[in-house]
## 1
Amino acid sequence: MKSKTSSLALPGKLLRHVRPSDLPAAVDLATRATTDVIDITEGVHQAVRRTLGLPEGEKHGRTSGLPGLVYRGVRSGTALIGGGAAALITRLLPWIDNPADHPPPSREREAVIAALNGVMGDRLHAIGNALAQPMELRLAGGRVLPLNQPEALRTALADASPRLLVLVHGLCMNEHAWQRDGQNLGDFLAHELGYTPVYLRYNTGLHTSTNARELAALLQQLTHAWPQAIESIALIGHSMGGLVLRGAQAYGAEAGHDWIAALSHLVFLATPHHGAPLERAGQGLHAVLASTPWSAPFTRLRRLHSAGITDLRHGNVLDADWQGRGRFGPGQDRRMPLPLPPGVACHAVAATLASSRSPLADRLTGDGLVPLRSALGEHDDPVRRLRFGKPNQWVAWRTGHLELLGRPALAERLRDWLAAPPPD
């Protein structure tokens, strides 16, 4: 008789962190990681053979002769064992796992999945891995809004106000990032200004433009289902989340979405509008590794970085910013200029570890991840410069990238900004 309990697989407490249904996805990841290591090893081996005048195999970076046969055998064996193990576990899951018995996931589990998606979420999505995070809109408390279930959605939004606030987290994070040092910006603004906060959870390893398009469509769906006429929509994005919001606004306007007319405020918190130096430093390391035949195979490690991470090099927002260009080449900043939208109150918050402005603090140090100039939209090229008015800018001194979200002064600043009407 088929088991209907999950206790045969893992204890209930452990199930908050790990699910039996994770195992096939984990085995698949382990198999692919092992294959990547084999590829790097063979690449180094062939680089040494090349200096001895020995020929390559059928593909660049592959060995020929007996070594090539061995590597092919190891690679095939890894795929066979990994695929077989994943298939076996999948067949056993109905007997050892019952999703109805799962307790709520722990914060630790959700944090690991968020980080995994940030680092390699594009690959997870491409291969259909179960650990790939779908885009979801959630209410305070973590309840997922059932956008495709009208009756359930109406029930979930029964107490919604006519003022909608959407908060979008950054790379490798989830909606829990908004809860920091005892402060939740969504809850605070709901209490102070009567907003109904909705939190986005998404796969930060995908291209920012991909997430932007999907978010624009979700907001269209959400606003159509809202139980009353929406008076105003405020969007707040932290870090990468700000890039996603700029793209969502652009794509929503391009598609003629109804929610664009209600958009009153756009707030960017520590957003790398013009990129982040850490990603550019990673690109420099990639170039160094590629410069010698012995280290070139290790550039594969760099290529494991997600599309979302490489978008942070220059602050890509639109499809045109990256399509048709290699993600790992030495390419220059060729983004399409995207000005701030008219008729919307746009605000920029920057954090910096420094106590005052200086060339080093502005262009490099910043909050530890995002330079101050990038967060404020400043750029040497006037066409790329984002023209936030001085009253619409604020700098948190001696503050780190994540530390910013817990600053009471930030909450007060946002309250004052969102309380003011948008420009005509």
## 2
Amino acid sequence: MDPQRLRATIRAARAGREEAYQEILAAFGPRLYGYFVRATGSRHDAEDLLGEVMLRLVGRLPEYDEKGRFEQWVFRIASNLVRDRIRRAKVRPMTSSLEAESPGGGVLGETICGRGRPAEAGLRHEEVSQALNEALERLDEPSRQMVLLRHFAEMSFREIAEIFQCPIGTVLAKVHRALKALRTVLEANDESDAGRL
């Protein structure tokens, strides 16, 4: 949605027009839903969280400062909801597989293992998915959320920095270290599987 149209939609939503909220949901819903599915590992939880984001928008839209970017504001709410959900559940969710595509078509497995190397090298799909899930679960929560926002919500490093209210260098470092850790775990799994043959 172009910025001028978004501003008009926000004003209409603030005025209580329901169709404006539907436009916001149409514009941001698919990316939010994809982020929630990958963050929680559950389509049901993702639907619940999407509904919860919309309820929060209704209640908090008057607080939104139009000087900031609306998308980042929405994803900050989404990220906080995911963290709260995970804390309440006290378990880390199973996340997506290596072959899960981001909305832009990028595959996380290619990012971790490199584009020239098949993500499944020597491993069955289930083993790779399990290895990725286990590796993601080992990451600290902020790093895990940053990887998910970067690769599944297609957010820029600058946008993620604004969501987490930290310097962009911190985001770059955390995502780089997280991807390196994921790559190390997956390569170790690949080598141990090759040793069994």
## 3
Amino acid sequence: MISKTPISAPFPVDNFLLPSIKEQSKISMITCDKSSDTKCSIPIRVGLFFDGTNNNLERDRDGKRIGVPDSKTKIPVFIKNKPLKLEEYSHSNVARLFFAFAQNKEGSGYFRNYMAGVGTPFPEIGELTESDDGKAFAKGGQPRIIWALLQVLNAIHLTADGLKTPLYKPEEIGKYAQDYDEEVGKSDGDVYGNRQQITHVSWFAKHIAKLEKARETRPKPLIPSVTLDVFGFSRGAAQAVAFCHLFNDLLVENKLAGIPATINFLGLFDTVATVGVSASVARTLPVPDGFADGHFSWAKRILDPLPACVNKGLHCIAAHEQRMNFPVTGLATGNKIIEMYFPGVHSDVGGGYAPGEQGKGRGAQAAMLSQIPLAYMYKAARLQGVPLQPFSELETRLQDEFQVDLNLASAWNAYTKALDDEGGLLLKHMELYLRWRAARMESLEQIASFKAADPQAQQDLQDSNRMLAGDVRAMKFRSKLNSMSKDMNSLPFSQADAVNISQWQYLRAQKSVPLNKWEQWALSAYNTAEALPDDVMRFFDDYVHDSLAGFYLAGEVTEYDKRAKASKVMKENPGTLKGFDKKVFDITSKAQVAQKKKERGEILNQEEENLANEAEYGTPYPIMTDTDSADLRNAMILTQTSTRREGGGYFMRRGYYPHEGFLFFRRSKYENQLQRTPRVPKTSKADKKDSPVFDMVWSEDMATDLRIADARQFNGYGANLAIV
């Protein structure tokens, strides 16, 4: 069961994150047995942070740039980093929580480890640059999980050895993480010719044995417990869940290397696996869902119930994500993990957009929609005893990365009011979104966010809005099929129409396939005449991104992708170039000329000045449009789309895993909830005035707790996050 969206925005954040006396009592009670003031006894706390696909804090927060590899040495060439201002940061919520975790306290048993998202550099495991295979197929996910497991062993060894030496150095862990992929699942022979398959447990046995042997020689300090807190976003969330299973496999009677071990908290932002053959294949080809579900290799484990070693957690699910390549995998684990809808698309929940992308969240970090699930996750984790620093103790720079501004808060509250207490229903969230899309069909280009978007984003939004209009035409045709003559001799749309209609709708209209139940409902919601309240319109206008418009199956996404493409094109014979490659060559040549003129101190015209400035820390690139699709696409995606982006469109329901059933007859375990329609609103009765209730609470500092009791608390916050 997916819980309702939190009603109140966490504003002001410092009040929202200030624990009440009762909450502080709970935190103290949870953490009292996981801390020690004596050097002879050190409980270990390890925070593990798995970032999402194409999320990398060094690039997104620190401006680190990686050069394109030299053709001979294969080593990335040197390139200047880009200095970023606070309002340019685009690091994810996982990265922000990583910085908030207890730091510089290894001597007291606190360790934290960050795993960069798949598709981005992770030099320690051999990934020197960004990679298409990582972004598309999650290559590199398993080495990141093994890296994290070995870092837990490292934390134990470092604590036992007084922080002198780790069990393994970073380069050794990286090599082992890569070796695991090659070795596990294969057979190993002994001197007598016996062969036995190497399993996950047997592979780790030698490393755990090495750790246990080292501890035998160092009985002090006593390590009474190992407690983990694990966070993840997107495929990083899938890695986090898989980590929990693989960690549990290594426990013997709930102990790791003889030490009681547990996972205290699992914090997930919109879990997406899409490992191996994507679920979109099953939607576009006659392939059984059980085969093409995006849960290959290590990702199979996340379909299993969570292991007993996991205590509590929170899973924030993006209510408005629709891409068929981004199905969410729920946990469905009773009351262990609270799963909760948050409005917005994938990165509106997990973070990763910079302020102003697509013109949304303009001006500051506090204007980003993803700040709200971040605050709720921060609070839930703190209440479960995760050693995140109290908000008031964070450095000012980090506090700024957690703020929520008043305009966002008021828009959020207007949106949740419009949910009418039905925030646990996907249909209610999508109803409001589709009504907004209908209202903005003709006026999208007049709103402030569109005007503030960069030229490429404007192009993407225009192309997608045109596609939406085509989908509405196709769906209206399909909705009338039952009343039409069955002797139609002509097709409803021409081949030229294919670029203006999503492939999903186009093919079904051409084959005269009636609307399915979801599509019937979606078209009805889209056609709703009643206008949305102004502040709900503002919520979508200014804060909710369009992930379909910005997600390319064809074309370069990141600055590194564009630079690598330009580098490749510039090595070609200019006379043989055509289409989009010719555009890349032309703009790159102009930029190089402008840079040289600037270096010589020559006067530049406006175009040259713009190119030279952009080239200093970026890559000038042609605007990609749907007319470039043929040049940008490869044959692998032709079954999904006729444009640059995936062909599901805005009227396709997102996939929800786990599934149950057989072959082609499988459905989500969440299906009953996903199909529930909102009820007719009822007038609420006046709240009864309850008598005061007094609770016994634990206080470690009476003066501080009394000040907290007097502090003004934000009404209604945290009501859905009562993790006990």
## 4
Amino acid sequence: MDMTKYLDVFLEESREHIRSLNSRLLELEKSPGETSGLNEIFRSAHTLKGMSSTMGFDQLADLTHHMENLLAELKEGRMVANSRVVDVLFECIDRLQIMTDNIAQGNNSTGNNTDLIKTLETIRAGHAETAALETVQPEETVEQKELTPTSSSQDMVYNDYDISVLKEALKLGYNIKYMKIGIAPNSMMKAVRAFMVFKVLEEAGEVIKSNPSAQELDEGKYDDHFELVYICQGDVETIMAKINQIAEVKLLQNYSLDPAALTVPEPTTLSAPQAEISPAEEQAAHQSKIPHLKHTVRVDIERLDNLMNLVGELVMYKGRLEQIGSIYKLGELNNTIEQINRITSDLQSVVMKVRMVPIEQVFNRFPRMIRDLAKELGKDVDFYIEGKETELDRTVIDEIGDPLLHLLRNAIDHGLESPQERMRLGKPRQSKLYLRARHEGNNVYIEVEDDGDGINPNKVRARAVKNGLLSTLEAEKLSDEEISMLIFESGFSTANVVTDISGRGVGLDVVKSKIEAMNGEIIVESRPGLGSLFKIKLPLTLAIIQAMMVTVQNETYAIPLTSVDETTMISPHDIKNIQGQEFISLRGSILPLLHLARLVELPENVGEPDDIYVVVVHKGSRQIGLVVDTLIGQQEIVIKNLGKILNGIPGIAGAIIAGDGNVCLILDIATLF
């Protein structure tokens, strides 16, 4: 069997098991006496061992095998999960992650694990009186199933040739066995499991017949079990034990066959007559099968991207139809467009939901990092995660991990005090760190909160003046909230000591830039001595957004609505000029004006218009008025990437194809000025 076609499935499942090992081991460290988590750890390690062995990654399988031996000691109560045991198991998980990453990159030379295996065996030998390897109990790897009287070899159909082969085998002294093999209902590698069973059987005998066929088993085309007839010489019990050691596999039924008792069915009869079944019994039987059906499929993200692009094209042409209908005032066309609009919106909504994944995929990376970092810095941190079921578009999920990682590391390194300092201040010895997520409208809000020292506004003011960011007078005029936002300025840091963790002055500004590049926002609230709260606001998706369409010198531009506060119309006489900078007074506040034509290097209008259109946008906490020629209005747009050559141009986030077929640029307010 060609195993390369299963590599992607193997890698995905391996990463899932490694994530499970990390999270379960963290739980075990907190509650060493809790056996349910230990059973899950044991199962994940055992399954990973089986998959690795089948795929031919022997070093990975060998390491998980020795992990399994140590876990068996814990499971049987002969050892305690002390800090040394937990630390070495975490080290094993790290090594498994590295080996899996190497395999994903095509490097099947997964390194030497002799040192780690020796450590595992040393710990085990120091606690266990015997070094005998623990074998996996079948009931711990596969869901138990009740056998019915009809689950027998009579379900298989034999021909004359099958029966003659079996009779000849019996004459030669072979054991003839009927076996029913069960596979875990949630197994994603059914073909691999069947291959593993056949591999064990063919080491000592031969499979004469199977149901489904060998080809169907090779393709994974069966439900949760398959049947086979097997002949062998020697110890059948050893073979059965090996089958039961395969991950996600259970030998459901096994008995000797008498070929003389087998019959060839009539040509028109494929099964034995069945007793009458009442409608109620039939319905109950049907309903009992429903929970075993699969309702999910794994889809390559590229296919979802292509689907989203097609929906984007549909949205674009819908806009063109609307424009044609409005120009020519075609009533019937407008009615059809309304129907297309409804269907397009429904399709767009469905595709968006398909692309949504739980933010848990990102959040689950952090507990292990928090544990290791707190231990390294000598801090006692209780980490809480809330709202991990909150869903985001896959593209946003892929981008948000690094900013959150830095915020959490920064909180532990700078925000949270040592246990001794907290006790001196009258605080609980253990610090609290929260990571939350929630939906609100078309946005997702993520919060990172700690109960540490908080941000000292006076310290920030002094550092801002020292670094030349503000004059002393400007610093005094700003509120504490405005001062706190200065920590996001490039190169700004209040850390007295530069560490490998953070405090190098190159972090929070990058966090802010990355979040704004996703059309998001970040603010910080802090109370000195009580802690800090970082709030991130993100759109649900980056693919289709609402935008304000404007024109400058007959060129159309799109401004993401998340950056727009309002639009207004002013008279040229309302504009004041102070030292070369134009301002207007808007509801008692001074609003700086910038001409979009100048920012995008287009010639400005000659003469003075009667009315001037202004789009009020925000960049962080700062508001700016963009002067444009006309306002077209709000539209739904599909963002198109500009490609490698034009990517990264300041002030430009992407492009769209407008309803009239022309290409329009999408403005990136964060980098425009």
